[in-house]
Amino acid sequence: MTYLTWLEDGVVVKHSSNGNAALGERAMKRIVAAAVLLAAAGALPAQTIVPTLDQPGRKGDMARLVQQKAKEKFDTADRDKDGKLSQEEVAAAFPYMTEHFAKYDKDGDGFLSWEEFLGHNRWKKD
Length: 126
Ligand SMILES: [Ca+2]
Ligand SMILES: [Ca+2]
Fold this sequence. Notes:
Order of helices and strands: EEEHHHEHHHEH
CATH class: Mainly Alpha
CATH architecture: Orthogonal Bundle
Bound molecules: calcium ion
C-alpha cells in the first residue's frame, strides 16, 4: 500500500508500507501519477488536503502540476471530446480503472466527469 501526504510546506511525502518516506524531484513523476490515481480512486481525503490552484508557493505549484497532468490524461482519453469519459474511453485509456468504474462514477450516469475523474471538485479543468 502506498499513499501520499501533503505537508504544510507543499512537499509531498510518499509513504510505503514499510514506513519509509521518499522525497524530492527524483520521484516527482511517479508521485504525480500516483496522486492522480489515488485522488481518482477516492483514496485521498481530497477536500481537506488538496491545495487550491491559486495557492502561492510550492503547494500551489504542485497542485497546478498535478492538475495539468490530470487534464492531459483526461483530454487524451476523451476521444469524442464531449467533455466526459465513457466506459469505453476509460477502458481504452485506463484499463486499470475499468473494474472500479462504478465507484468513480459518483452520480451513476455512466460517464466520468472531470470532477469524478479527478476525485474532487477543487480544481476547475480550464
Ligand atoms: Ca468522451
Ligand atoms: Ca458520472
